[in-house]
């Protein structure tokens, strides 16, 4: 049995302080090929994922598959349903920011197997994840782990992979976008994946490319390479425009992801959430742990514990004003017998978003899974919001985030 919700040693922050889319001509290409309906799993999915342990594991390779949430908690994401929390894989292959080490790939595979058998079926990646010659590593590992998943085929088939295609300046024509998506599929060893998301909008600096990208996304869908499309780092105004455009082109927009956490909340995020609700698309909250700061393990009391590079630089700006929020998070965590990471992730779910925390090892993944199966009360959410309002400096917005 996993001890997912055990409370580990008090986080550093508590140990050191006292309590308290222009018109578009119809495509001249051949009509879209007959599409395989996006597998709609509820019956088979729930039977497999939600069987009781006493029902044995036949058909699941001996692996106990037990979702840590109720079926009713699944979230509609375009043509499919996803777990209330997903999993982010930015760190897989990224040495620069995340200190990725190939030697630890077997542990990452264990992490993948653990979270899938715990009911997580949404994985976020990107074709730009992985630094230097490791570019694309995250997609490649994800494809490998999925194909080698030792549990049941029903559970494996329920996994939804959402990649993000980078808005490189040389990606302009629909053919180039389709080519980029085919490269992704090749790295993953898949014919088709759930979602292709535009990694960022170029509206702020190259508006002409922006329109070309929309057509690229349409072309990827029309080629039958994805079940639906998504967006990343789009604000409400740009979202409404592209939402209208995709709708006109008959392309299902399933999700939008933005930075969203207790340190990245406020009118801008609320406006994106409202725009998503208007369009009927899911909001994926990325960096729900504020790159690790909301785990409570980093503290200015121990600067040597801070990560190096750009992350350390950011932490030094944010951490000095974070203590009151960490204090409230710690108190709620202690009362609930949860951890601060679990509280931070749960808060994102309470906002009606689907958080995709990253985890670098099994211990972090186990802990983060403990954010499932319970909900913060309205009062606790209020207390967290009030404490977050008092944080003098939160996360910096992604430079590509549009209005
Ligand atoms: N669309 C975009 O532009 C965009 C941008 C950013 C992220 N994303 C997506 O969102 C995902 C998640 O965001 P993120 O990876 O930036 O940040 P995050 O989820 O806020 O933080 C993840 C990091 O926090 C630490 N951590 C995680 N769980 C922990 C635990 N239980 N205890 C202690 N430390 C823990 C780990 O780093 P350490 O151990 O090094 O502290 C881990 O890599 C990414 O993987 C990616 O898929 C998308």
TrEMBL record:
Domain NADP-dependent oxidoreductase: 84-387
One of the Pfam families matching this protein, by short name: Aldo_ket_red
Ranges of Basic residues composition bias in the record: 26-35
Keywords: Oxidoreductase
Residue ranges, annotated region (Disordered): 1-40
Gene Ontology MF terms in the entry: oxidoreductase activity
Cellular component aspect of the GO annotation: cytoplasm
Biased composition (Low complexity): 1-25
Gene3D superfamilies from the UniProt entry: NADP-dependent oxidoreductase domain
Top-level taxon in the UniProt lineage: Eukaryota
Entry protein name: Pyridoxal chloroplastic
Naturally occurring in which organism (per UniProt): Micractinium conductrix
């Amino acid at each position: 049995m996993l001890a997912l919700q055990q409370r580990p040693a008090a986080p550093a922050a508590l140990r050191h302080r006292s309590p308290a889319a222009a018109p578009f001509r119809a495509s001249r290409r051949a009509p879209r090929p007959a599409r395989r309906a996006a597998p709609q799993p509820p019956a088979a999915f729930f039977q497999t994922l939600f069987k009781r342990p006493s029902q044995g594991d036949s058909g699941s390779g001996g692996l106990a598959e037990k979702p840590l949430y109720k079926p009713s908690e699944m979230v509609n994401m375009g043509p499919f349903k996803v777990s209330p929390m997903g999993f982010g894989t930015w760190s897989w292959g990224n040495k620069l920011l995340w200190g990725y080490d190939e030697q630890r790939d077997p542990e990452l595979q264990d992490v993948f197997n653990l979270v899938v058998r715990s009911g997580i079926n949404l994985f976020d990646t990107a074709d730009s994840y992985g630094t230097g010659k490791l570019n694309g590593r995250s997609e490649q590992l994800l494809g490998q782990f999925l194909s080698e998943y030792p549990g049941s085929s029903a559970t494996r088939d329920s996994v939804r992979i959402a990649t993000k295609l980078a808005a490189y300046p040389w990606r302009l024509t629909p053919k180039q976008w389709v080519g980029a998506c085919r490269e992704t599929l090749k790295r993953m060893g898949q014919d088709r994946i759930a979602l292709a998301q535009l990694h960022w909008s170029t509206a702020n600096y190259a508006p002409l490319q922006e329109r070309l990208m929309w057509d690229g996304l349409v072309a990827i869908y029309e080629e039958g390479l994805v079940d639906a499309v998504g967006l990343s780092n789009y604000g409400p105004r740009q979202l409404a425009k592209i939402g209208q455009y995709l709708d006109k082109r008959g392309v299902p927009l399933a999700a939008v992801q933005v930075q969203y956490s207790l340190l990245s909340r406020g009118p801008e995020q609320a406006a994106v959430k409202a725009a998503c609700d208007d369009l009927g698309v899911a909001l994926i909250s990325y960096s729900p742990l504020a790159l690790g700061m909301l785990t409570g393990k980093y503290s200015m009391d121990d600067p040597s514990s801070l990560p190096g590079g750009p992350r350390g630089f950011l932490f030094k700006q944010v951490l000095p004003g974070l203590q009151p929020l960490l204090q409230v998070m710690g108190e709620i965590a202690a009362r609930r017998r949860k951890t601060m990471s679990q509280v931070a992730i749960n808060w994102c779910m309470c906002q009606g978003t689907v958080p995709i925390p990253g985890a670098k090892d099994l211990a972090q993944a186990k802990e983060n899974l403990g954010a499932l199966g319970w909900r913060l009360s309205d009062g606790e959410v209020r207390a967290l919001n009030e404490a977050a309002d008092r944080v003098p400096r939160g996360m910096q917005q992604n430079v590509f985030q549009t209005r």
